[in-house]
Every structure is written in C-alpha cells, then in structure tokens.
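Retro notes
What went well: the complex prediction finally ran end to end.
Inputs used:
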Amino acid sequence: MTQALASPPIVDTHTHLDDPAFDVDRDTVFDASRAAGVRHFLNIGYAPERWESSRALQERHPDVAFALGLHPQLADQYDMSLRQNLQRSVELLNPVAIGETGFDFSRAAPSFASQERAFRGQLEIAAAYGLPIIIHQRDASDALTTELERWPGLAPIVLHSFDGSQRLADWARERGCFVGIGGLATRRSTESLRETLTRMKTDRLLLETDSPYLAPPGSTSRRNDPTNLPRIAAVLASLWNVSGEELCWLTSMNAAGLFGLPTFDWPSTSTAFGPHGEPTASRC
Ligand SMILES: [Zn+2]
C-alpha cells in the first residue's frame, strides 16, 4: 500500500484507449499509465461499435469505466433503432455516464437539426437513468447553453476538453458543471483559456487526456496517452495555486464522486488533506 501511495492518484476522465492507435501496445500503455499513478480510466464509447470495444476493454482492464453515447459528428446515425440500442446497452453494460454528445459546428458536421435530435435523445436517456452527461462542444456554446437550460433536472454535466469563452465558464460555474482539463490548456497559444479556467472552482475540475488526441507540448509522440497527466497537472496546478500533486488528488476525488468510482487511500503524511481526504485549504 505504501508503494501505491508514492504518487498521487489520477483519474483520466476522457480516453479513447480502444482506438486502433493503441492496437500495437495497448497493454504496455495501461501498465505505464498505472505506474504514473492513473487509477481509473474513463473510456468514451462515442459510437455503437465503440460501445462494444469499451465493454471489451473493461473486461480486460477492470480499472476501466466507460461512457456510452453518440458523438455529434456522427449525429446522422441517430435514429429510433440506435436510440433503442443505446438504451438497451445502458441497461446491460452499466456505463458511468452518457456521451460524448453535444454540438459541433466547427467543420463539415451534420446539420443542426440532426445534431439536435441526437443530443436531445441522449439527454432524455441521461435524465431517465440519472447519469452524468459528457459534452463535446465546438463553436457552439450559445446553442449548447440554450439547449441545456431546457433540462434543469439533469444529473451533473461535464464540459469535456473545455475551451469555451468566459461567458460559458461563468454559465458552467453557475450551473455547477464539471470541466475537463488537459493538454490543450498547456499549449503556449492557449493563454486566454488558462485565464478563463481560473474562474472554475477546484471542486468542479477533472483531468483528462482525450488520448490518443491532443498530445501536450513536449510529448515524444504525437499519440497522446494517460502517462502525460502528471506533467499536465504540474503545469496547470498553478492556475488554482495548488501543487501538481494536490491537483491530482482534488480531480481524482471529484471524478470518483461524480462517476461513482472506488475511492482512494489518503496519504497519512500529507498536510494538504484532512482525515477524510478533504482539502484543508480551499483556494478559490
Ligand atoms: Zn473524445
């Protein structure tokens, strides 16, 4: 146990480790990530074939949890049969969240009507099962907040790979949304994103890589993987005046509570946390 406490626990709340990019060395990536402190991996099953590969990943790696949904870029696939299939899969496979879903207006994407239908269908399922919803949004913050305002009773909302405006950050803070932060916010060009992120409270932060996408600067590979998280946490921690280790603990605690993951043993020597693992100083 002392061994396991050597590094702070990390939860990677957004991975695609079933992606073919990991076919050559997936088990090695898992082992290296665990050695870096990653205790749970949340794999995002964003299309029907990824629901099955997420389930298979969990069967092989019990520290994997998964979300099931349909990516907005694939919204044209949404029809009654996909919806029924998703609902059946939610009942059979016990996902910890619905998603990633939302709006993506950034490039050749399905029509708004199509994205709206797929998004609403998934919001209904999330509401019916009381599951958190993981949101992907690109250039769509107004449409997103307008839609979500219609759903006051939803379980928590996660704004994955947050890159929104100050307005969206303020809305998210007001609404109590969680925000996923990762390598994107460590890029030199994302100064204004870092500034915006300081508006978020630490009890709503989640760490994520979006592996294999969004490799942080300084990576040896263009393929992102969860071993990058300690480095990402160390860079971002100063935004909230905490250490990288504290940011790992805080975000892991947030993720465990939000997704119902098994929690962690608290280090008896750390002064940053009280007897029940609560941070002793809230800095925001
Ligand atoms: Zn994703």
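What we learned: The two ends are 32 Å apart (CA to CA).
What to try next: split runs per interface for comparison.
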